[in-house]
Specification:
The chain has 7 helices and 11 strands. By secondary structure, it is α/β, with parallel strands linked by helices.
Length: about 240
């Protein structure tokens, strides 16, 4: 297994991707269902966490191993058991808006529990799918429906940055169903840029982040663009 809490990340020889065992929280989400076959085809193993047992067939169909677990109600100990033996945790879950209490319970509290559980389980690598513009200065009015989500993500992202994990925060723009191009543009962006990104490209960025040590400790916000994803992620400009 790659690393440990006291060991730094190991990089495979140039051009070789080390096979790994990942777990995706929010395993029945649209982005996760696009990510799992990418990881499978790259030779990785992947577990998809879903709260609905009926969704297990969909996870299996794209090459994942389903794990039924409701992260909103799961205890930290439950998450530790789920993470044991894994190389990375990917958070791709979301409450889906609506009830603010539910949003805080999933997007803030459960996300933070998952980080603590990853640390306890010895899973150093953690990739968070956030959104473009997340943070304490998100600018969403308090009476807006998106406010609870923005607040929850700001808190979760901040906790991850101070968690001691090898973290990457991905900040995609507004999601679309366009076909993936494999090319993006990283923030900062020109005002004239259309702030959209295909779910397929988000899936590709998750795989790239998991396979590239260059993304550790970075917040990478992006839109559909003209630069190869891995080239963009290698850039420090």
């Amino acid at each position: 297994r790659t690393g440990g809490l006291l060991a730094g990340p190991r990089s495979p020889p140039e051009g070789i991707v080390e096979m790994a065992n990942h777990i995706i929280i929010g395993g029945h989400g649209k982005v996760a269902l696009l990510t799992m076959p990418l990881l499978r085809d790259a030779g990785h193993s992947v577990t998809g966490v879903t709260r609905n047992p009926e969704h297990g067939h969909d996870v299996e169909a794209v090459g994942g191993k389903p794990l039924v677990l409701d992260v909103e109600t799961a205890l930290e100990d439950d998450l530790v058991r789920a993470f044991e033996g894994k190389d990375a945790v990917v958070w791709s879950a979301g409450a889906g808006g609506g009830n603010p209490g539910h949003t805080y319970a999933v997007d803030r509290d459960a996300a933070i529990r998952s980080m603590e559980a990853a640390f306890r389980a010895g899973v150093r690598r953690y990739v968070m799918v956030s959104y473009l513009g997340a943070g304490p200065d998100h600018g969403i009015p308090q009476d807006a429906p998106f406010y609870a989500y923005a607040q929850a993500k700001a808190a979760a992202d901040a906790h991850l940055r101070s968690s001691g994990l090898d973290w990457t925060i991905l900040g995609p723009a507004t999601l679309t169903f366009e076909k993936p191009t494999g090319t993006i543009d990283l923030a900062p962006l020109r005002d004239s840029v259309e702030k959209r990104v295909s779910r397929g490209n988000v899936a590709l960025t998750i795989r790239a982040a998991l396979e590239m040590d260059e993304t550790i400790g970075r917040t990478l916000e992006y839109v559909d663009g003209a630069t190869d994803i891995r080239e963009a992620f290698r850039s420090r400009d």
